[in-house]
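Quick one from the shared queue. A colleague (R.T.) flagged LLM class flavin-dependent oxidoreductase as missing a structural entry in our internal table.

Convert sequence to structure tokens.
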Amino acid sequence: MRITFAPWGETLAELADAARRAEEAGAEIVWVPELHRSAAVAAAALAQATTTAKVGTAIQLAFTRSPMITALEALDIDELAEGRFILGLGTGVQRLNESWHNARWGKPVGHMREVVRNVRHFVANAHTGDEIALEGEFEPMNIRGYERPHAPTRTEIPIYLAAMGPAMTRLAGRIGDGWISHELCSPSYLAERILPEINAGLEKAGRERSEIDLVVSACCSVDEDPQAAFDRVKAHVGFYASVRTYADFFEFHGLGEAQQAVIEAFRAGKGADYLGDVVTQEMTDAITLNGNRERVIEQISAYEGIADAVKLSAPTHGLSAAEIRKGQDEVIGLIAAIKGGTQ
């Protein structure tokens, strides 16, 4: 099972430096999200800061760009990374797409299927000058008289799909080169809720399990003082527990009442980043990695045999920049201890 990492930085320079240090520690992929930064720009920065680790988006929003722009960005980043880029795509939620980006939502599974098809086709053929004529309900693509004058580093760039719900997870099994979990995903949830849907998608497409890379995301708080590790991650859990959309996830872990307490505190006026005092140790233990190095390494080992890679990230919600840096340094040190790299 591979160890990968999602770096944090207050500036792009700090983000790139954290990725470089994680690579030296032994991280095999460094990932960037899309919310406060453009995933494509951040990935380009990491591509130039690293030399051996793959660089991936986890995730880039699929519906807020045209598939052609997504494909062009992927080709450019893959060139910068010398063939190390992974395009991770996700839908985001409906309100984000429609209200923030004025983007079409429609039927997410069908829409995502067409985006992936178009990106793959463009990456493979844009340099040939051949006509591109793809029909579709959401993303028809008709391009004539176009020839990209830059030779692609690769004509196939891996596309991973982020998915939590069953239909999108099955789609990842059908068409994805990889699957990326939500930031909170326990071994039991992965085994009992995610893998059956992945396998159903694989079976539908006549694919083997070896044809998809499963990347589980794990928020990780490491400290020799267990209380400090808990204190650093509890607001992160509170942030996600405040979202009613995740009710099934928390109910699965027997945390329905605990989540409801967080929701009530949120409704009473507490900010989403500052709900940690309502979060219990039981909640953090169920859905995050936290404790000293030995305990966290044991928690990581629980994913063996069901995930192909773990994407570690330090908690960020409700913390100052200095506190996030300390937590991130601890995670990079953990990676070095596991992989034998340098810290």
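The CA atoms of residues 251 and 257 lie 8 Å apart.
The chain has a mean pLDDT of 97.
Added to the table.
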